[in-house]
Amino acid sequence: MKQMHMAKTIFFTLLLLGGLLAPLVVYPVFMMKLLCFALFACAFNLLIGYTGLLSFGHAAFLGGAGYTAGFVLRDWGWAPEWGIVAGTLFGALMAWLMGGLAIRRQGIYFTMITLALSQMLYFFFLQAPFTGGEDGLQGIPRGVLFGFMDLKNDLTLYYLVLAIFIFGFWVIHRTIHSPFGQVLKAIKENEPRAISLGYDVSRYKLLVFVLSGALAGLAGATKVLVLGFETLTDVHWSMSGLVVLMTLVGGMGTVIGPILGAFLITILENKMGEIGLALQSLTGLEWFANLGESVTIITGLIFVICVLMFRRGIVGELLHRTTSKAKP
Amino acid sequence: MEIFGIPLPAILSQLLLGLVNGSFYAILSLGLAVIFGLLNVINFAHGAMFMMGAMVTWMGFTYFELSYWNMLWLSPLVVGLFGILIEKTMLQWLYKLDHLYGLLLTFGVTLLMEGVFRSIYGSSGLSYSVPEALQGATDLDFMVLPNYRAWVVLASLVVCFATWFVIEKTKLGAYLRAGTENPRLVEAFGINVPLMVTLTYGFGVALAAFAGVLAAPIYQVAPLMGSNLIIVVFAVVVIGGMGSIMGSILTGLGLGVVEGFTKVFYPEASSTVVFIIMAIVLWVRPAGLFGKEK
Questions:
Q1: For testing the chain B interface, which of A205, A296, A299, A311 should be mutated: the one with the most B CBs within 10 Å?
Q2: ipTM, two decimals
Q3: pTM for the structure as a whole
C-alpha cells in the first residue's frame, strides 16, 4: 500500500513536471487546447465514471460557458478572471436547470433528456442575436489578468491554463475521495440500495451534475480565452459525443484516463489531414487524401471498436492487467 | 376566414406539414420503442437508418432507374438486411451489459454511416422528384391539398396501425410481447428468441427506412438529414414513454401538429417547441404521458 502511494506520488510529480516543461517542446496554444479538453473530459468522467450517469449534453456547458465568457470579455470588457468566473457560473446554472429535469428519469431516459435539452440550447445559440449565428463570436480579447499579467504572451497564458487545469483536477480528486464521493459510488453500484440506506439520491445526483457542469464550464471559458473565438461546434451534440469518446478511449472511472483520451482524440482530430496525406504517399491510394474531411468515419470506427472489445479503455486495461497479475 | 389575423388556408397547410413531420416522428419513435422493448437498446442509429432509406431510394433511381414504387419496398428491405448485419456482428454481444453500451455502439455506427455517405456524396442535398402519379394538388375549396403530402400521411398511418395490429392482436405479436416481458421463459417454450431479436431489429430499422423513402421527395436527400431528426424523436419518446405502441404513434403525430402550429404563430420557437414540451412534461408528469415507470 505504501509502495503504491509512493508510485502514485512519483507519477503525479512527473506528470506535473511534464506539464511545466511542455511548452518548450509543443506549440503552447495547442497544448492549452489539449488541457482544456482534458479538463472537460475529467468533468464528464465525474458523472459517467463515478456516478454512472451518462450525459449526452455536456456540449451545452462547454459551449454555453464559452459564449458567456466570450460575450462578457468582448462586449462588456470584463477582466479575464471574471470572464472565467462568469463562464463557470453559467455552466453550473445550466447544469442545475438541465440536471433538475433529467434526474427525474433514470438510465437511458436520462441520457436522451440531456441530449434533447442541450439541442434546445444549440438552437437558442443559433438564433440569439449576440452569438453571431453561423460565424460565431470572433475577436475575443485575452486581456490582462488581475490587472498586471498580460495574457497576450502565450507562455503566461499557458501557465494560467495549467493552473486552472490542476485546480479542476484537484477538485475532482478531492470529490472522488470524500465521503460524498463514496455515496456517489454507492449510487453507481446499486441505486435502490443507496436509497434504502437513507440517502437522498436525487440530491446527490443533482449536486454532482452541477459540479460537473461547472467544471465543464470552466474548461469552456478557459478555451475561449485561449483561442479568442467561440463557434456553434462547441454546443453541437457531436461535441457531447466527442467527450464521451475521449473518456471511453482513456478509461471510464479512472483518474487519468480521460486526460489521456482527450489528448489522443484531440490530436487525432487536428492531425487527421496530415495523417491522411502521409498514408496516401505511403500506399498510393487517392482516397486517403480526403481523410481530413472524413474524421467522423474514424471517430465512429474508434467508438465501435472501443465498445465491442475495449470497454475498460487504455488506462483501465493497464490497471486491470497489473492488478490481476498482482493477485495470483 | 382568418384566425388571429392569419388566413385559414395558411393554417391548414401548416397543419398538413405538421402532420407530415408528425408521421415521421410516429414511425421513427414506433421503431425505437419496438427495438427497445425486446433488445433493451436505444438505437441511436435510427436517424442514420432513416437517412440510408432515403439515400438508397435516390441511388436506386440514379443508378438502376428503379421507380419510387419499387423503392418503397426495396429500400426498407436493403436497410433491414443491413440492420440485421449490424445486429449479428455487433449488437448481440452487448445485451448482457449496461444499456449505455448499446447507445454508444449505435452512436458510433451513426457516425460511421454518416461519414461514409458524406465522403462519397458530400454534405449538400440531392434532389429526388415526386412520383408522377402523386404530383400536383387537389383543390378542396377551403384549401389546396398537395397530393404527395396527403399520401405521406396516409401511408404512414397505414404502416403505423398495421404494426400496432401485428404486435397487439396477432400470435406473432404475442410472442414478441412475451419476449419483452421474460425472454428466458419464452425460450423455454421452444421459441427461437435470438432469431426473433434479430428480426425485430431488422424490422425496426426497416420502418425507419420506409419513413426515409417517404421523405426523399419532400426533404433534400443528404447524409446528415437524420441527425437532428433523431434528437427530436428522442424527445418524442421521452414525452410519450416507450411502454405503449399506440402512445408512440399518437405522441408523434400530436407533436408534429403542435410544431406545425408553432410555425404559424411563433416561427422562432418552431425548432425548440418539442423540447420545451418535453421539459414541461418532465416537470408535471415525470413518467411521460403514456409511460409506466417501473
A1: A296
A2: 0.87
A3: 0.89
CB burial string A5-37: b at 16+ within 10 A, e below: eeeeeeeeeeeeeebeebbeeeebbbbbbbbbb
Q: Return d(Cα B111, Cα A265) in angstroms, integer.
A: 15
Q: In residues, how long is chain B?
A: 294
Are A205 and A99 in contact by the 8 Å Cβ rule? The answer is yes
Q: Does A28-326 carry CATH code 1.10.3470?
A: yes
Q: What is the pLDDT of residues B56-111, one digit of tens each?
A: 999 999 999 888 898 999 999 999 999 999 999 998 888 888 888 999 999 999 99
| SS3 assignment for chain A | CHHHHHHHHHHHHHHHHHHHHHHHHCCHHHHHHHHHHHHHHHHHHHHHCCCCCCCCCCHHHHHHHHHHHHHHHHCCCCCHHHHHHHHHHHHHHHHHHHHHHHCCCCHHHHHHHHHHHHHHHHHHHHHCHHHCCCCCECCCCCCEECCCEECCCHHHHHHHHHHHHHHHHHHHHHHHCCHHHHHHHHHHHCHHHHHHCCCCHHHHHHHHHHHHHHHHHHHHHHHHHHHCCECHHHCCHHHHHHHHHHHHHHCCCCCCHHHHHHHHHHHHHHHHHHHHHHHHHHHCCHHHHHHHHHHHHHHHHHHHHHHHHCCCHHHHHHHHHHHHHHCC
B103 contacts A296? CB cut-off 8 A: no
Q: How far apart are CA A29 and CA A10, in angstroms?
A: 27
Of B111, B118, B231, the CB nearest to A116: B231
Each residue of B140-151: pLDDT tens digit? 777 778 889 899
Q: Is A128 on the interface with B (CB under 8 A)?
A: no
Pair A52, A252: CB distance under 8 Å: no
Residues of A in contact with B103 (CB under 8 A): 54, 108, 111
More confident call, B209 vs B124: B209
pLDDT digits (tens, 9 = 90+) for B211-224: 999 999 988 898 88
Q: Where are the domains of chain A?
A: 28-326
